[in-house]
Structures are given as C-alpha cells and as structure tokens.
C-alpha cells in the first residue's frame, strides 16, 4: 500500500533535475521498502509545498566557523549522542546514547574528554536534554525520549521518573527536545511525530527511519506540550507541525522557538495572548 501511494508523491517531484529526482526516488523507495517490514501505523500521504529557499546569501552564506572553532571530543568512544549539556561544575558533560543510557565525561585541563562513565539507563533513546537547577532538589536532568516520553533524572539520587507519556489517553511516541521556562518552571517539550520509532536489528530505536517516514507522509503531526511540575498536568500548546524538533523558551517566557525540521523553518509559539504560532 505504501509503495503504490508513492506514485502520487513522486508526481509532484517532476520539476526537479533528473539527477536530483533519481536520487530522491531511490531514497524514498529504499526507505519505504525498509519500513514495510517495520511496525508503524498506516501512512496517510499529504501534499506539502515548502517555502522557497532564499539561497546561500547574506546571513546564510557559507562559512568555516565550525571547522575553525570546534573540535571533536571522545571521538570513537560515544555512540549517537543527540544532545550534550554541561553541568554546574563546568567540567562534566552529560549526553545520551543509542542504547538508552545517559553517560558523562569530564573535561581535563587540556580540554580533552576523560573518565567516560555510565550515569543512568533510561531505556528508550534519549534525544533532547535540559539541565535544570532546582532550588530544593539540586540538578535535575530532563530527558525527551521517544519511547518513554518526558523523563526526569535526579542527578543527586539517581532516581528516574516518567513525567508525561500520553495526552488525552493517547501515547506520545516521539518526544524529541525539551526546555524549562525560567519564569514558571514549566517543562516545554516537542513530540516530533505520531509515527513511533521501532526497534531495529541492533535493538535500538529507529528514530531515523521513523523521521524519514514522517517526511514522506507530510502529515504534519508534530506537537508542542508543556508539563507543569506543580499540577503534573500536560497541556497542548501547538499542533500541525512538520516534525517538531528543537525547542527553546524566551527569557521572559512569552514565546517558544521550535525547529519545524521538514518545513525548513523556525516557528514562534506564543505563550502570551491567544494561542498561535508563526514562522
């Protein structure tokens, strides 16, 4: 069924160059063939027209800043970290790995990574992380995990707690990124898609495969939520996003900035005034 539906999807790509079309068609067919053996919900392909690119000019002009100023840490010793956060001591870095664990390393005087170690096992696939310094409890690590949902790790005690993993009785299957509001203390997080990652042959969650299917479907099922630690309630803030990915709250908590990956744009989700979002 998925492959037959692709014909209508590919028809809209005919304006692409032949080489680009051939490459994209190969990626599409390969992804669907692979996904046909994976447990995912039926796909409902939709039409989507992206905003035209402004080109690689002005602030988007190519540069070498990352190559010149950045270097690799713990290269070859970590596996699939999505996010890294620095703890309050200024030397310990926390990150998630593909096997569902949270790990850490220390930055030595020479700036190199040392003392690589296990911190906790979340069990899904830790993606977004946010370190919050709670006045009463100390450092809390909030984790967005597609399988587990929004998770809290108490770094002092090592206790893990699932804060939110469903909304209105339906499971959240692709928690992606997380931030904490400096004013209210609410925990904001994205649910990238309603296509759930599945376990691959290595036993890891197939987040890449699920994201490819979300791109092909163009169903715009991404959402943004807020979790209130005081009431333990989860509130829907925005929906209809084409893969809701990274998230950041403004300093005054008047809006959130969300990376809508497959729409190739950043959107503002306004928290003050009528609920809305804008590019």
Describe this structure in words.
This protein has 279 residues and is an alpha+beta fold. The chain has 4 helices and 18 strands. It has a 4-stranded antiparallel β-sheet, with no helix packed on it. A 4-stranded antiparallel β-sheet has the order 5-6-7-8, with no helix packed on it. Strands 11-12-13-14 form a 4-stranded antiparallel β-sheet, with no helix packed on it. Strand 9 and strand 10 form a beta hairpin. Helix 1 runs antiparallel to helix 2 and helix 2 crosses helix 4. The protein is globular and about 55 Å long. The N terminus is likely disordered.
Question: Layout of helices and strands, plus pairs?
Answer:
Elements: H1 2-11, H2 18-35, H3 65-69, E1 84-86, E2 92-96, E3 101-107, E4 113-121, E5 129-134, E6 138-145, E7 149-154, E8 160-164, E9 166-167, E10 170-171, E11 175-180, E12 187-191, H4 207-217, E13 222-228, E14 233-241, E15 244-249, E16 255-260, E17 265-270, E18 276-278
Antiparallel strand pairs: 1-2, 2-3, 3-4, 5-6, 6-7, 7-8, 9-10, 11-12, 12-13, 13-14, 15-16, 16-17, 17-18
């Amino acid at each position: 069924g998925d492959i037959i539906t692709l014909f209508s999807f590919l028809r809209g790509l005919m304006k692409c160059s032949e080489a680009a079309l051939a490459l994209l068609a190969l990626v599409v067919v390969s992804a669907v063939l692979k996904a046909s053996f994976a447990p995912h919900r039926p796909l409902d392909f939709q039409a989507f027209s992206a905003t035209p690119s402004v080109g690689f000019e002005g602030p988007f002009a190519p540069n070498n800043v990352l190559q010149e100023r950045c270097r690799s840490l713990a290269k070859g010793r970590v596996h699939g970290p999505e996010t890294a956060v620095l703890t309050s001591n200024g030397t310990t870095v926390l990150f998630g790995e593909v096997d569902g664990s949270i790990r850490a390393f220390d930055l030595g005087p020479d700036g190199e990574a040392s003392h690589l170690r296990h911190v906790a096992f979340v069990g899904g696939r830790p993606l977004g992380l946010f370190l919050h310094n709670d006045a009463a409890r100390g450092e809390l690590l909030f984790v967005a995990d597609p399988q587990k949902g929004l998770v809290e790790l108490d770094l002092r005690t090592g206790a893990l707690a699932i804060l939110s993993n469903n909304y209105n009785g339906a499971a959240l299957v692709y928690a992606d990124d997380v931030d904490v509001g400096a004013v209210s203390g609410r925990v904001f997080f994205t649910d990238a898609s309603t296509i759930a990652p599945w376990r691959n042959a290595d036993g890891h969650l197939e987040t890449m495969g699920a994201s490819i299917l979300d791109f092909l479907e163009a169903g715009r099922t991404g959402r943004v939520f807020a979790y209130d630690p005081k009431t333990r309630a989860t509130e829907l803030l925005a929906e209809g996003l084409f893969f809701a990915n990274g998230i950041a709250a403004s300093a005054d908590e008047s809006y959130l900035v969300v990376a809508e990956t497959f729409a190739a744009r950043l959107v503002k989700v306004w928290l003050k005034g009528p609920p809305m979002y804008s590019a």
